[in-house]
Amino acid sequence: MYKYVIFDVDGTMIDTEEAVMFSYQSIIFEKYGRHFSEEEMLKGYGVPTPQTLAKYGFTDIDKAMKDYYKYLVEGFSRCSTFDGIFELIANIKAKNIPIGIVTSRCKYEIVIDACLQGFINQFDSVVCSDDTTLHKPNADPLWRAMEKMNANPSETIYIGDTVFDGRCAKSAGVKFALAVWGSNNAENIDADYYLKKPSELLKII
Fold first, then answer.
1. CA-CA distance, 146 to 39, in Å (whole number)?
2. Across 49-53, 74-78, 154-158, least confident range
3. For 130-153, what is each residue's pLDDT tens digit?
4. Total structural domains in the chain?
5. Domain check: are 42 and 118 in the same one?
6. How many CA atoms lie within 13 A of 14 on its CB side?
7. Is 29 in the same domain as 11?
8. Bridge-partner residues for 157, per DSSP?
9. Which of 44, 105, 128, 199 has minimal CB crowding within 10 Å?
């Protein structure tokens, strides 16, 4: 049904919630002397790190980024892929279906993640926040990925875990599959498909 498959990273292929939360809350505590509530943290979700830091009240973004990465490297060392992701990618590749990545991470955040580096070479296209001026939920990142893959939107499906991923897919004219296994808000996210485990994607494509 679909000839091209594009994945988000965090919360979709890799369980990074604890690592990212640890990193943000560590620098937030250094700045404010307290940790943010879940509601306060939500306002920074789904956008590139510099934008998130600005939403959390940081003004010296360069310094905040350095402090954030210091903690993130430590956090990434404890991350792992969700169960079934390696098998899913292997099965898709066996069908000769091109696969890509569209993520809000920057290139550096990709490079320092040893877990992701272990299988990123399997992907035909990788688009991160450095590659576009506009970011999710804007359609540009997905359009860039499809351009690299010579993909048609009607033949492409995007798998992600947040409302921003869903809006990005809709804006790009691409079907969206919600990775329920990594989503914290699945009941409030519109999607064309709701996948409880990675292997369910194979039934669609």
1. 34
2. 74-78
3. 999 999 999 999 999 999 999 999
4. 2
5. no
6. 26
7. no
8. 5, 175
9. 199
